[in-house]
Structures are given as C-alpha cells and as structure tokens.
C-alpha cells in the first residue's frame, strides 16, 4: 500500500469516527437538550412577497409579537439559563417592521444575551446600520437570491436587488460582519459563478448557499424550480470546489438543511449534519407559541406551549417530545438505509408528516 492510499484511508477513518460521534451526540441530545439558538419571530409582515417564502409572509400581514411578553421571557431566560451559552435570532417576516424592534433589541442587549437577525436588508440605510452596531448586534444574515433579474422575480419587488446591495454595503460601513444566504433553484442555478464573484466584490464574510425547499409558497407556487438530482450534485460540487480553492478566502458553505451522504458530509460545511430543531434550536412564534425551527410546518402537535401561560424553561426541559425521536424508525425506506444512523430521517422542516418519510433524501 503506498503512502497516498494510507493517507486517504486515514481521512476516511477519521470521517467515519467523527460521524459516529455526531450520531451518538444526537441520541444524547434527545434526553439532554442544549439550547443554542432561540428565534423570536417578530412579525409575519414583510415588505416583500417572495415566491419561496416558507412562512407565507406578505405586506398585508399585520401580526406583531407582543413586546411585553418577549421582555418577560428575556427575564426568565436570564434566570433559568444563567450558565447557558445561546443566541437569540430576530426573524420574521422582516423583523425591522416590528414597531418595537429597537426596544426588543435593547432589552436583549441589556440582559447580556448575544443576538443576531435575518433580514432582506432593503430597510437598512446607514443610520439603521449604525443603530444596529450600537445595539451590539452580533451577527446578521442577508437574503440575496440571484442576480438582479432573478432576485427581483423571486421577491416580486422591482428595485429590491439594489436596495439589498446598498444594505450590505451600509452594514459593512458600520463595521458589521455580513453573511449572505442564497437559495438556489433552476431560476438562478446558472448564475452561481457570477454570484460568487459578486460576493467577493461585496466582501461578504460568509456566503451560505442552500437549495430551494418544497415548503411554504415554494411548494404551492414554484415547485417546478426545485433542483433535480444532477443540479444538486453540481451545487454541492461547486461549493466544495470553492472551499478547497487556495485563492478563495471567503467562507462559503452549504446550509444545515440536509444530510448529504458520506461523500459530501463536512466537505461543503464545517461540521456534520444534525437537525437541531428541538434539540439545540427553538423559536417563539409571532403569537407566542413555543416551537422548533421556524421553517417547520406549523402542526398543532409540534406546538409545545405559549409564553403567555407557560415558562419556556419548563417546556424546553420537559416538552419537545415529537422533536426528540429518530424519525428514520418511522420510515420503511429509512430503516434499510446503511447511513440512517447519521441522517436519522433528515430535517424536520422537510418531513412528510402524512406519509412519515423525508420529502428530500439526497441519498436516493
């Protein structure tokens, strides 16, 4: 056996060992959840009406999270999770539309809890970018889904591409590190190289690339734009190529969306797949409901309580039972899969609850 073969085998052995560790850690989390991210869904209103929105947000929506309830929750979190290390992520809709956005952000900051936000950035002028800096926002993810024509077609708002680009530049001017998230579909698949050059030109710190998912409006309006098998493999290959390019210093990664097979795990992102919904991730929906990842289908059995009547800590420790199970045991196809221990039924946000199987399986 030559030295190269030994080196390759060593790499495979290390990957197998680490994947087994993650599988064991998942089982540990079923009984010992570890809160790392708590989403506050501030509103279901948005200034855009994206064709792929998983939450069906529109400019006509009028729900806003109760500010007093959120501040009361923050006090609880400070008391109940005194030794925990978690971050609050403000999301929506467009979170900046909440009339008390700055009050909520300041309340989080005053309690010493790290926070970030997801946004389309169209409302971030230089003044707002500087306010966010004063409020000690720690991270921000900006949605940019293609070059001008593709982005504006998907978001159904003429001019929003330039507004988002301006928002990114304003954030940089105010000293923020910026992550850009791009949803890839058949609409913008051929733009990947140009988008990569745009991200470098904008000097984004991280580019998170994910595929269009069969959820929300994407399922009902543009399911024909879902990537096929060959396109998905090319997308992952594109990400891997850029990550291993010694001339590229920008962080580029695939999102946490799916188990990618042994071949691609840790090749296109820093860690291995683990659906963290209900294990490390929870959310407070706009009406106060306690939930898992906000991208998941809003089914009654997945709602664990409401902050108007329940203490979040009690629910986190004693609830979330539907989230803390190996879903691969529910699916005949999954039961016979040699990689089921690493996948565990894939992501909850694309789980087919009617037929108990994953809607997306990148192995098949």
What's the SSE blueprint?
Layout: H1 3-31, E1 37-41, H2 67-80, E2 87-91, H3 101-110, E3 115-119, H4 126-134, E4 139-143, H5 148-155, H6 160-173, E5 179-184, H7 192-202, E6 206-211, H8 216-221, H9 229-243, E7 251-254, E8 281-284, E9 289-291, E10 305-306, H10 312-318, H11 332-335, H12 340-343, E11 351-352, E12 357-358
Parallel strand pairs: 1-2, 1-8, 2-3, 3-4, 4-5, 5-6, 6-7
Antiparallel strand pairs: 8-9, 9-10, 11-12
Helix pairs in contact: 2-3
Can you characterise this structure?
There is one protein chain. A hairpin with a 4-residue loop joins strand 8 and strand 9. 36% of the residues lie in helices and 13% in strands. With 364 residues, the protein is an alpha/beta fold. The protein has a ten-stranded mixed β-sheet, covered by helices on one side. Strands 11-12 form a two-stranded antiparallel sheet. The protein is built from twelve helices and twelve strands. It has helices at residues 3-31, 67-80, 101-110, 126-134, 148-155, 160-173, 192-202, 216-221, 229-243, 312-318, 332-335, 340-343; strands spanning 37-41, 87-91, 115-119, 139-143, 179-184, 206-211, 251-254, 281-284, 289-291, 305-306, 351-352, 357-358. The model has no long low-confidence stretch (mean pLDDT 94).
């Amino acid at each position: 056996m030559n030295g190269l073969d030994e080196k390759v085998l060593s790499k495979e052995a290390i990957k197998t060992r680490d994947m087994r560790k993650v599988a064991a850690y998942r089982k540990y989390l079923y009984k010992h959840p570890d809160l790392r991210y708590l989403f506050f869904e501030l509103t279901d209103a948005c200034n855009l009406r994206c064709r792929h929105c998983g939450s069906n947000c529109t400019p006509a929506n009028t729900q806003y999270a109760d500010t007093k309830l959120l501040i009361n929750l923050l006090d609880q979190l400070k008391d109940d999770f005194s030794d925990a290390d978690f971050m609050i992520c403000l999301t929506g809709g467009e979170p900046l539309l909440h009339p008390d956005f700055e009050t909520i952000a300041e309340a989080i900051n005053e309690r010493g809890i790290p926070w970030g936000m997801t946004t389309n950035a169209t409302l971030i002028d230089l003044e707002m970018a500087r306010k966010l800096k004063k409020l000690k926002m720690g991270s921000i993810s900006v949605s940019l889904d293609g070059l001008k024509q593709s982005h504006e077609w998907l978001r159904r708002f003429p001019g929003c591409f330039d507004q988002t680009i301006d928002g990114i530049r304003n954030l940089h001017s105010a000293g923020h590190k910026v992550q850009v998230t791009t949803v890839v579909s058949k609409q913008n698949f051929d733009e990947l190289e140009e988008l990569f050059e745009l991200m470098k030109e904008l000097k984004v710190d991280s580019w998170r690339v994910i595929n269009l998912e069969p959820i929300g409006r994407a399922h009902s309006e543009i399911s024909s734009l879902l990537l096929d098998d060959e396109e998905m493999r090319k997308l992952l290959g594109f990400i891997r190529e850029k990550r291993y390019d010694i001339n590229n210093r920008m962080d580029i990664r695939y999102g946490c969306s799916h188990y990618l097979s042994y071949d691609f795990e840790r090749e296109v992102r820093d860690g291995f797949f683990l659906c963290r919904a209900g294990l490390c991730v929870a959310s407070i929906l706009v009406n106060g409901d306690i939930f898992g990842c906000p991208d998941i289908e809003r089914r009654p059995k997945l709602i664990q309580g409401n902050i108007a009547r329940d203490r979040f800590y009690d629910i986190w420790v004693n609830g979330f039972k539907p989230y803390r199970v190996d879903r691969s045991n529910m699916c005949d196809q999954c039961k016979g899969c040699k990689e089921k221990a690493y996948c565990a039924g894939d992501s909850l946000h694309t789980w087919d609850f009617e037929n108990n199987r994953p809607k997306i399986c990148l192995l098949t």
